[in-house]
Amino acid sequence: MRWEELTGDQFGQAVAQSEGVCLLPLSCIERHGHHAPLGTDMFIAREVCNRAAALEPVVIFPDFIFTQILEARHVAGTIAIDPDLILHLLDNVCREIARNGLKKIVIVNAHGGNNALVPYFQQSQLVSARDYVVYLASRSNFATDHAGPTETSAMLVIRPDLVHMEHVPTDGEGEALGRMNHLLDKGAMTGIWWYGDHPTHYAGNAASATAAQGEELLSGAAQALVEAIRAIKADTTAKRLQDKFSSIAAIRLRNLLLPVERFEQIRVGTFPQLNFVTDPCDPHHQAQPHLQHIPEVFRCPNSLIQSVVPSCSKKGPQLRNRPPRRRELDLLSR
Fold it and tell me: Residue 316, class by beta-carbon neighbours within 10 Å (0-12 exposed, 13-18 middle, 19+ buried)?
């Protein structure tokens, strides 16, 4: 079920049928040698997602092409977005997907330049509590080259009319130049490493590409994605641990040194709900109380935090400092 093809009336049913799972295909617009289209990664990501959705119900978000491709800014046709904007936009899109009821977001990456971006983005989800989880289907990306035999073979299946095999180089252009090997061989690298190897943005030899090979690759990637989707649908652990982590991280205790292992022993509902006040200096204090994520997951006794003192300083609410009472330590150690 493609997001853009659904009507507003159909959307709720699509969320239910997909069990709240949405595929987010990541790609980019970049040069793919002399013979393949700029949107090669986009076409491949879309095809793998479509094939998987035909086997297991999911909602597919429209192609997300604004990802990391700064290493190709020197060649025509590339759309390279500022790094901070990529992260903000991707985070905003995930929040919008979740707001529409799809709480399990599965990144399907078809661009090698995102291999560092995606794990970092996933880790960045821990900066605050979320009502959704971002997964990565890591086995759905089969490309081992750039515009070489794997990607070109896939395009010979998806859009053969856009592939110009007569323009495939025969002079070894796709071989790595190794201009940065003096560092790479010693375990050191810089951001210019790709340009050092492949200045024409072509890696591999597409001359051996065939549609039969492309069909095998696409089928295998789709099946791997289906298996990941089914595991994600059944998963309840990631969200539970994410909620617990966010709740523990949100608690600000002063003068209370509690070992990490004690936090791990705390279960939902262990303590009475913490009643807290808001900062009158915060323009959103009525709708956004401080420590708002604690009550649902991590319960804490009123006596543990004596009070939150409203303050108009830049630091916001301050906790009164005092040594923990024995009763409080006993409650936390249960």
Answer: middle
Give the dihedral of Cα atoms 27, 30, 35, 36; nearest 10 deg: 20
pLDDT of residue 281: 39
Which structure tokens are listed for 158?
Answer: 């998806």
Note whether 240 and 181 are within 8 A (CB).
Answer: no
pLDDT score at 266: 47
Which amino acid is present at 46? R
Short-list 203, 192, 180, CA closest to 74: 192
Taking residue 182's Cβ as centre, other Cβ atoms within 10 Å add up to: 9
Q: Are 22 and 97 in contact (CB under 8 A)?
A: yes
Burial 194-204 (b: 16+ CB within 10 A, else e): bbbbbebbbbb
pTM: 0.76
| Sheet with 104-109: strands ordered across | 59-60, 21-26, 104-109, 133-136
Looking at residue 312, its amino acid is C
